[in-house]
UniProtKB/TrEMBL annotation:
Keywords: Amino-acid biosynthesis, Asparagine biosynthesis, Glutamine amidotransferase. SUPFAM superfamilies: Adenine nucleotide alpha hydrolases-like, N-terminal nucleophile aminohydrolases (Ntn hydrolases). The keyword Amino-acid biosynthesis applies. It holds the Pfam family Asn_synthase. It comes from Capitella teleta (Polychaete worm). Residues 288-328, 461-537 form the Asparagine synthetase domain. The keyword Amino-acid biosynthesis applies. This is Asparagine synthetase domain-containing protein.
Length: 575
C-alpha cells in the first residue's frame, strides 16, 4: 500500500458500535494543498479515506486539499439525499470510504468509470475494503466493488444492511425516484461484501447524457470511390460542413481535460517531493508529466495538447515500452567444434516504430519543448520475474491472458525506466520523474476504435454499432480501469484519463454516431474519425491516419512467451 502513497501514512481505529471496530489506514500520494495524513477526521468522530481528484463540480481552491473539503461538506449532511447530491457534483476519478459516525453508517464506492480501484473481501467475520488485495486475511477472495453507484452499510447493532444508490443520467433530477433512470439498469443487485444488497430510495445524478441514438437512414459508401486515399490530406476530403464546429469543440473540450490534469498537481516532480516537503521553496524543472506513448492517435493527441499547458522549461516524458523478440535470423558459428547457433534478440516492435515517428511529429509542431522519449526494453526473464513478484497481485482479481498482457505492459511502461537520447545523440539511462501519467484509455470505447466495432457495423449496421458503443461505455469500469489504477499506482504515480473526463464524455455522447465514427470509410480513417480530424487540424497529419493497435500487440508482449493463447483464456502465469 505504501508504494501507492509514499508521502505519508496514517492509521486510526474507530469504534463502530458495541460489537465492532474499524481500522482505517491511508497512504497518501501528495498533489494539492498541505500534506494531509489520512484517514481525515472531524470532531464528531466521522472519518474519510479518499483516493481521488476533484477536478470540477465542488469548488476546491488550488492551495487546499480536496479530501479535507469533501469531508467538511459530508459532515454537514443529515440525510442520504444530501450525501447523494455531493457525490453527484464531483467530477473526477475517485474511490472512497466514509464513516458517518452520527448515523453509524459506512459509505463507500468508486466514480462511474471506476478510474480508481476498490476491492472488498468478507471472511472470518472481517470485512476488508481496500485499493488492492492485502494480506490481512490471507485466504480470502477479493472482488472489485462494482462502479454502479455509492454504497451505504448500516452498522446499528440490531440491524446490518447494505444499500446501493445507483448512478442516473443527468437529465434526471438531483435525487430522482428510483425507476428506469438508473444508468446501469439495475433492478435486483447481487450481494456484496457477504451481505444482501438492496436499492436505495433514489439515484445519484451524473454528467452522463443518454447516448445519442440518431442514425442515418441510408448507409452511404459512395464517398470512398471519389477521393484519393493515398493523399496525406485524405481526411479533409471526407469532412462535411457539420464536422467543422465539432472538430474545434473536441479540441477545446479535450484540451481543457488535459489542462486540468497537468496543472492540478504539486509544484515538484516525484524525485524532488521528499525535499520539497521539508523546504517549500525548492525549485524543480524536472518532468512532472508523462504520457503512455505508443505513437498512436490517442497518445499522440494527448501529448500534443499537454504541450500547450506544461511550462516550456519542463520536459514531457513519452513512455514507450517494447518486449524482447527473437529475430527471424540467427548466427550460425562455423568450425568443427562450433557452438549452436546464436539467437538474435531485438526490441524493434511496432509501437517503437510509431513512437519514434510520433516523436518526430511532436518535435515539428512543438520544437521548443524537450521531449524525453523513453525507450523501455524488457527482456523475457525480467517480465517473468516481475509478473510473479508484483504484477500478478496487482492484476488480481482479474485473471485472463489479456489482463496479464496489458497489466505487465502498463506496469513496465509506468515504471518509466529505460534509456533516452541525450544532447550528444547517445543513449543514457533515464527514469521518469513524473507523478502524473496521462493515458489514452476511453477513446476507442467512445469512438469505435476497436476492430470488433467494424465487425458489429458490418453485421448490424448503425444500430448494431450504437448498441456496441453503449455496452463499451457501461462496462469500462469492470474491464480495465481498476486494474490499470492498481498497476500504475504501484510506482507512486497517478493515472489520469483525459478521454474519460466527464465533459468530454458528455460532449461525445451527444454527437450522432456517424459524425464521430464513420465505418463506411477504410481502416485508419473511419474509426475515431472526429478525433483523427482533430489531430490533423493541430498538425499531426501522418499520425492522424494510424490504425488502431492494442498495447499487447504493439509492444509485442503477446508474442514474448506463448503465441497460441486466446485473450479470454484464464492465464496460468498469473496463478
Amino acid at each position: 500500500m505504501k508504494r501507492r502513497g509514499p508521502d505519508v501514512q496514517g492509521l486510526k481505529t474507530i469504534k463502530l458500535n458495541d460489537q465492532q471496530s474499524g481500522v482505517f489506514y491511508g497512504c497518501t500520494l501528495h498533489f494539492r494543498g498541505d500534506l494531509t495524513q489520512q484517514p481525515l477526521t472531524v470532531q464528531d468522530g466521522s472519518a474519510l479515506l479518499w483516493n481521488g481528484e476533484i477536478f470540477y463540480g465542488l469548488q476546491v481552491p488550488a492551495d487546499e486539499n480536496d479530501g479535507s473539503i469533501l469531508l467538511n461538506k459530508l459532515s454537514l449532511c443529515s440525510s442520504d439525499g444530501e450525501i447523494s447530491i455531493i457525490f453527484s457534483q464531483i467530477k473526477g476519478p475517485f474511490a472512497f470510504v466514509y464513516w458517518q459516525n452520527c448515523k453509524k453508517q459506512l459509505w463507500f464506492g468508486r466514480d462511474i468509470f471506476g478510474r480508481r480501484s476498490l476491492l472488498s473481501s468478507a471472511s472470518d467475520g472481517i470485512l476488508s475494503i481496500a485499493s488492492l488485495k492485502t494480506s490481512i486475511v490471507s485466504d480470502s477472495y477479493w472482488s472489485e466493488i462494482p462502479a454502479h453507484g455509492i454504497y451505504r452499510m448500516d452498522l446499528i447493532e440490531s440491524v446490518q444492511s447494505l444499500t446501493l444508490f445507483p448512478w442516473c443520467y443527468e437529465d434526471s433530477e438531483a435525487t430522482p425516484p428510483l425507476d428506469t433512470c438508473n444508468l446501469f439498469h439495475i433492478e435486483t443487485p447481487e450481494a456484496l461484501c457477504g451481505m444482501p444488497l438492496t436499492l436505495g430510495p433514489h439515484a445519484i445524478s451524473t454528467s452522463f447524457s443518454v447516448l445519442c441514438a440518431e442514425v442515418p437512414s441510408v448507409t452511404d459508401t459512395s464517398q470512398e470511390d471519389e477521393v484519393d486515399l493515398t493523399s496525406p490530406d485524405v481526411l479533409d476530403q471526407f469532412v462535411q460542413p457539420e464536422h467543422e464546429e465539432l472538430i474545434e469543440e473536441l479540441i477545446s473540450v479535450l484540451g481543457e481535460a488535459v489542462r486540468i490534469r497537468v496543472e492540478c498537481q504539486a509544484q515538484v516532480c516525484h524525485h524532488c517531493m521528499p525535499a520539497f516537503l521539508k523546504n517549500k521553496g525548492l525549485d524543480c524543472d524536472h518532468s512532472r508529466v508523462a504520457v503512455l506513448f505508443s505513437g498512436g492517435i490517442d497518445s499522440l493527441v494527448i501529448a500534443a495538447l499537454a504541450d500547450r499547458y506544461v511550462a516550456t522549461n519542463e520536459p514531457i516524458d513519452l513512455l514507450n515500452v517494447a518486449f524482447q523478440q527473437k529475430s527471424n535470423k540467427s548466427i550460425q558459428k562455423s568450425g568443427k567444434n562450433a557452438e549452436p547457433e546464436e539467437v538474435i534478440y531485438h526490441y524493434n516492435v511496432p509501437d517503437r516504430k510509431t513512437g519514434l515517428e510520433g516523436l518526430q511529429q511532436l518535435e515539428e509542431i512543438a520544437p521548443l519543448r524537450k521531449w524525453n522519449f523513453v525507450e523501455i526494453n524488457i527482456p523475457v526473464e525480467e517480465l517473468q520475474e516481475t509478473r510473479s513478484q508484483r504484477v500478478c497481485d496487482l492484476v488480481y482479481p482479474l485473471n485472463t491472458v489479456l489482463d496479464d498482457s496489458i497489466g505487465c505492459a502498463i506496469w513496465f511502461a509506468a515504471r518509466g525506466k529505460g534509456v533516452r537520447t541525450n544532447s550528444c545523440g547517445d543513449f543514457e539511462p533515464y527514469e521518469t520523474t513524473a507523478r502524473v501519467v496521462l493515458v489514452g484509455m476511453g477513446a476507442d470505447e467512445q469512438l469505435a476504435g476497436y476492430s470488433r466495432h467494424r465487425v458489429k457495423f458490418n453485421t448490424g449496421g448503425w444500430p448494431g454499432l450504437l448498441q456496441e458503443i453503449r455496452m463499451e461505455i457501461e462496462r469500462i469500469s469492470s474491464r480495465n480501469l481498476g486494474r490499470d489504477d492498481r498497476i500504475i499506482s504501484d510506482h507512486s504515480r497517478e493515472s489520469r484519463f483525459p478521454f474519460l473526463d466527464e465533459n468530454v464524455v458528455k460532449f461525445l455522447s451527444q454527437i450522432p454516431i456517424w459524425l464521430k465514427a464513420n465505418l463506411t470509410l477504410p481502416r485508419g480513417i473511419g474509426e475515431k474519425f472526429l478525433l483523427r480530424c482533430s489531430a490533423h487540424r493541430i498538425g499531426l497529419k501522418s499520425g492522424a491516419l494510424l490504425p488502431k493497435r492494442a498495447i499487447q500487440f504493439g509492444s509485442r508482449i503477446a508474442k514474448a512467451e506463448n503465441r497460441k493463447e486466446k485473450a479470454s483464456d484464464v492465464c496460468q502465469r498469473l496463478e
